[in-house]
Amino acid sequence: MNVEVSSLRIVPAEGADRDALAHLLVETVAGNGSVGFMHPLSLDDARAFWDACLQAAARGERFILCAWQGDRLVGTGSLALVTAPSQPHRAELTKVMTVRSLRGSGIGAQLVAGLERLARDHGRRLITLDASLVEGATGFYRRLGYHVAGDIPEYAYKPLGGLGATRVFWKLLDAREASTAVAVDPVADERFMRHALALAERAEKEDDEIPVGAVLVSPEGEVIGEGWNRNITDHDPSAHAEIVAMRQAGARLGNHRLVGCTLYVTLEPCAMCAMAMVHARVARVVYGASDPKTGACGSVFDLPADPRHNHRVAVQGGVLGEEAGRRLTNYFRAKRGKPPL
Ligand SMILES: [Zn+2]
What backbone torsions phi and psi does residue 147 show, to the nearest 5 degrees? Predict the structure, then answer.
């Protein structure tokens, strides 16, 4: 489901939009959306909230964007400029809401992109936000290039009751981020991930190793390294699929730097492999299944995104993730004598 871009209008909020904004806020809170309020939120309280916001916008302290489809308000998002003198470069993304029937249709992404443009235009290059953990926010913001700083338990009451955790996100809109940007081709991503999945199968069939496969692809789109887990076979604690593929590519290129290359791997890399990619100057990593136990590309650690490195590796997760995850689950089920899922 995609909203036609032509029918969607994203514009700054005006005073006359207050009532439409108030209705959207009341609806969001009634749907248990964590936007700072408890249910039931009265229309008058919602109006008072937006009156204050619109006044802040008039003073230039905040930007409010509205997404309109015809004369129907279908979404909104705000950007608050941080006023602390020590943070003249920071802004907070807040109150991003889409009408329930159109969630997942790309309106939220367009609102965030519009707010980022406003941030840039006003000299703000660090964006922070927090989002409740139960609403699929992580996937949404990660797709937009946001990094997870961490989770805070018992952060706020949900509108319908019960304390919920929040996840803190950040994104740097700086030039360094832009210069390392790599062209992304979803069709090629899927093709190389299929290749990596075939290698994962060989790990299991030929070596009875955990089925993880990796492919290293040159900037020209040529496969220059292949690997699968060989820890047990080679008595080598570092022989993860990614390391094996990078080692092969380095030998082939005669260079320990794999500049501009993309690594495809069926499982989210661990800390060792993530750091090896940073050392090798790999441009981008694409992984299949997330690893909630040891994943170092956002799940447990977020090493590629750490601003203290002088090289950033772009990260994309979830490509054929379900298939990659099922393969791993079935491997471990078979080890315990259970039938495959
Ligand atoms: Zn690893």
Answer: -110, 150
CA 198 to ligand 1 centroid distance, Å: 18
Mean residue pLDDT of the chain comes to: 91
Distance CA 41, CA 45 (A): 7
Report the pLDDT averaged over residues 176-193: 73
Residue with the two structure tokens 């979803």: 186
Cα 276 to averaged position of ligand 1 atoms, centre (Å): 9
User: What strands lie across the sheet with 284-289, from one edge to the other?
Assistant: 223-228, 213-217, 262-267, 284-289, 314-316
Query: Would you say 279 and 314 are in contact if contact means Cβ atoms under 8 Å apart?
Result: no
How far apart, in whole angstroms, are the C-alpha atoms of residue 3 and residue 199?
38
Residue 312's pLDDT is 85
3-state secondary structure of 69: strand
* Residues tagged active-site: 242
φ, ψ at 200 (rounded to 5°): -60, -40
Query: 273 CA distance to ligand 1 centroid (A)?
Result: 4
Q: Is the pLDDT score of 164 beyond 50?
A: yes
pLDDT score, position 174:
65
Q: Please give the distance, rounded to the nearest whole angstrom, from the Cα atom of residue 307 to the centre of ligand 1.
A: 21
- Per the confidence metrics, is the pTM higher than 0.70? no
Which runs of consecutive H residues, i.e. helices, occur in the chain? 18-30, 43-58, 107-121, 137-143, 175-179, 186-207, 231-234, 241-253, 271-280, 321-335
Structure tokens at 111: 């609102």
Tell me the average pLDDT across 268-282.
96
Q: How far apart are the CA of 232 and the centre of ligand 1, in A?
A: 14
